[in-house]
Amino acid sequence: MTIQTPHLLPDPPAFAALDGLDCETAALHRAWLRRLFDEARNWTALSLALRHRGLGLGIRDGRLYLTRNTDGRRVAPVRFLGTNLAELSQRLGRPVFRPRRDRPAAGDLIR
Length: 111
Hints:
Layout: H1 12-17, H2 23-39, H3 43-51, E1 55-60, E2 63-68, E3 74-77, H4 85-92, E4 97-99, E5 107-109
Antiparallel strand pairs: 1-2, 1-5, 2-3, 4-5
């Protein structure tokens, strides 16, 4: 039986994006990835830290997502980490995205 605490776990769509990870594994991913976001001083540093781990950032359906470098597919929304584009932009500055032609309201972080 898994006990879910609302302030510690993401809502169900975030788990679905993470291919059904159990709550302990999801918590470890959050702790590990959140550190990268907290330590970044700008978008370039965050992008490089994520890229070294096979991840990237992209806009999908108008929201900021962690994406896979290999195929650009969504991994999880950044709200899974307890942040959002507005908070990150305030701290890291204005991001620059390259629009994707294959999807509406989509783009990939350049810097």
